[in-house]
Structure formats: structure tokens, C-alpha cells
Amino acid sequence: MVLLEKAEQAFPGHILDKGLIQEEIFYRIPRYVVEYLLARMGGHHEAVEKVRKLLEERYLGPGHEQWIKDQLLRAGRFVLIDRLEVQVDLQTGTYRGRIPSLGEHPLEVRPRLAEEHPGVLYGMWGTLELLYDPATRRVRLGQFIPFEAHLKGLEPFQRGRQAFTEEEWTDFLLGSVGINPEALSERQKLLYLARLAPLVEPNLHYLELGPRQTGKTYLLRNTSAEAFVVSGGKVSPAVLFYNQLTRRPGLIPTYEVVIFDEIAHTAWEDPSVISILKDYMESGQFSRGGKTLAAQASLVFLGNADDPTPPVTRVLPNGLRGDTAFLDRIHGLLPGHEFPKVTPELLYQGPALVVDYLAAALRGLRPLAFSVEVSLPSGYTQRDIRAVRKWLSALLKLLYPHRAWPEGRVKELMDFALELRERVYEELHRLNPGEFPSRKPQAPPPRLEWAGLHALLPAEYTGLFQALQEAGLPPPEEGPEDLTEEGRVIGQSLARWGQKRLVPPGLGAHGLEVHPDTPVVDIRTYLEGGL
């Protein structure tokens, strides 16, 4: 109750009990559509029955086209809820709409609709008014009201965030997108926020490969109407970038996030697609038909992988597998095996933000710059730096939209961002170690134990080496080793620290000659540069 009161005071009119969307009929349409309708109906238990009846009356789905046509013939008008997709007919120079409830029956739409709502070229949910003209015997689209929330400004959202602590806000944010934070560790919460990052940061591209049923597409698909999912099949420059015949933009210039789901089942054999894709991922621009166009869509590549050990990208399809130029343009690789399976316990059922309001706020944060100085180790490239900055910016926008973050938290988030990029680099190293040498710090060579060394030494040197041990010197890395000259063994050393050896008399060319009574201080002075 305390959380509900705080939430309603911070975001009046935008709070919904997520337990209300458990009705079976609600699973037939995207979550953001259901929550949009529930919020418009009051957002309480009474709203469930209203929305349920509304969907029963207005959302029919495939298989009802004859009944709808009967109603149009009788009354000349019918209103329904559905997903509208507009197609361009070049032969007639007209636009035709398609909705699942009408099957393949053509629906005339006005030309300006695609300009007012570009998303209809790929499908948008909304309330549609269908009109039948007995004279022409055609069905045309009257009014179309898409299910989208629009904010006049970010100030109320930013002000509402200030009512929560960071821990409360993280849980509230996850609850708003339907994830139960109580079922997650702190690291898993951060990983879920990383899945949301493309919604607030333009041109942020990530790859996630992991087990099935972990909800890879769940968050983005159900949070924002600005996320489009490509589920397998063949991709082409016309679909993704720009259709030169219809002169219409493709998915990437139209949507904020384009998700390639089941990437192993998507055909990437067309070299021109991959070439344009790499250009876009690097520069945010692409060229088609003599034109250079810019876009801000973030790209998400998702796939199934049973084995989490590198190189996990071995499951990528032909055309992408082993392509280091493509992989180097990926800003982060999410560890898919760390996400839990989606179970009823993972779904949140308490009060939280209406998801379409949250999506509108995230859309408003997208063009803003949340930048902080980052200092990476030497040897990191501009792509590494750019990737870390993008992740850091996205996480700050999600956690601190009001721009008031503690300095200590920035370092933690930067380390997480660096980890996501380092996972990409590890894959690059596995594929081409010559071009991408390992950046993991080399572990110091193992040292002997003093007890083991004493057993290898000549008996007369036992006292000397016991004195070295008592003086606090670390044990050597190696005990006695063969010493050679011109390919033949001339004797054995006593011990080696790094490149510095202690040798018996007569072998001074290979190290420091020592006698059983050599002063410890002389040996320490010799070894100081090698310890």
C-alpha cells in the first residue's frame, strides 16, 4: 500500500495494477495495447470488465471477415480494434489497408495516412472506423486512432522519479514492464535494464544469445509500439532500409528499435544487405538509390545458444558467423544464460506505470545526451569507447532520468558497460587472435613452494635457501634447470626468479654465482629487479 500511494502521488493517472492484465483474452494482443485500454477505463478492477467487453465486441481477429462484411452491408459502418497495415499499389497509385479481421478483403485508405503515421506501413494497433459505400461497393477507412501515449514534456516524469530511491525506482521500473523484481538478483536487474537500453539510446546495437524461454523479445515487443520484430525469413535492403520502387522508408528509418528474432533462421546471404548494415551500424547512415539517409534505430540480434562458452557466436547464421567486421560494430553481448526462464513467479502483479506512458517517456529521453567522461585502459579503440559511452548513457537515462546520479554509481555502471563490450571483444579474439589480441591480464607464473625447492637442491645449499626464506624472499619460479652452451648441457642452476638465476661456482655466465655461505643481502640486492 505504501508503494501504491507513493506511485499514485508521483505519477497521478498513470498507475496500473499489473495483476489486472491476467485475463486470458488479454494475451491475444500486445501488452501495451491492453494497458492503454485499461488505463483509459480507469485503471482499477472495474476497468477489467469494461476492457474485456470492449475487446469481445471490437477485437474479432481472423475468421470473422464474413460477419464484419455483413455488418457493413447492413449499417454501412463498423468500428473495431485491430492491427492496420498499409500497402502501396504502384499499378493503381493507391494505398490499401489490410487488417487480420477482414482477411484479404481490400480496405481503401487515404494517401496521407502513411505520412501521419509511418508505422502503418509495417503495422500499427488502434481503433478503426470502417465505412462501406454502396455506390462503389468498396470499404474504406474512416477514422484511425492509434494506441500511443504522447507526452507534452518530460518534466512530470522526471519529477516523479525523484520520489523514489534508486532501489525502489529500479524495482518500480522493472515492475512497469511486467518483471517481478523480487525474483531477481541485483545483477539480473541490471541485465534486464540492459535489454531496455535500445528504447532510450539511439543507435545502440546489442546481441543476446542464450537458452529458450527467457523472454528475449518479451520486454521490447510488449513495451513499445516503436519496436518491430523481424522473425526469421529473408531480409532485403528494400525491407530494412529503403524501397526504391515505392520510395518508402524501410524498417530501420521507421522504427526506434528493430529486433531480429531467431537470427539463426534469418537469411543473410545477400552481401548487399550485410554491407549496408555494417555501414549503418558504424555511421548511423546508409546509401540507397543515390541517396544517403540517416536513421537512429537501435538493432537487437537475438538467438538461441545452448553452450555459453566462447565463441558463443558460432550459432550465428551464414553471412554473419565469423564476420569480425559485423561483430566489432556490436556494442554489447548480453550473457543470455544469466536470465531466468519466464515463469508465473517472474511476472509482476503489483502497481506500476502504465507501459505505454513509460514507453512515451523513454521515447522522450532518447534524443537527450547523458554523457560523462569515461577513462578506459590503453589499447582500447574508438569503437570500444563509443560502445561504453552508449551503454553508460542508456543506463543513466533509465535509472536517473532527472540527471541526479551519485558519482560512485557511475563507476559501477561503467564497469558493467565495459563488461558487455569486453564480451564482444572476447568473441573477436577467438575468431581472429592476430587482429584482436587478448586483453585479459596475464597471470604471473606460478612459484614453487619452499618445501618443494629444498628437496631439489644439493644438500650443502639447504641452509642458504632456508636463510633466504626466513629473510622474506618469495619462493623462485623454477628450481634447478639445465644450462646449455653450444647445444650441450654444462651444469644446472640452483633457482630462478624471472630471468635472474642463482648458480653454483663456475657458471657465472648464466647468473649470480653463490656459495653455501654467500650473504643473503648480496642475493637480495641481485634479485631486487626481478622480484
TrEMBL record:
The keyword Transferase does not apply. It holds the Pfam family BrxL_N. Keywords: Hydrolase, Protease. GO terms for biological process: proteolysis. It comes from the Bacteria. GO terms for molecular function: peptidase activity. Residues 10-132 form the BREX system Lon protease-like BrxL N-terminal domain. This is ATP-dependent Lon-type protease. It comes from Meiothermus ruber (strain ATCC 35948 / DSM 1279 / VKM B-1258 / 21).
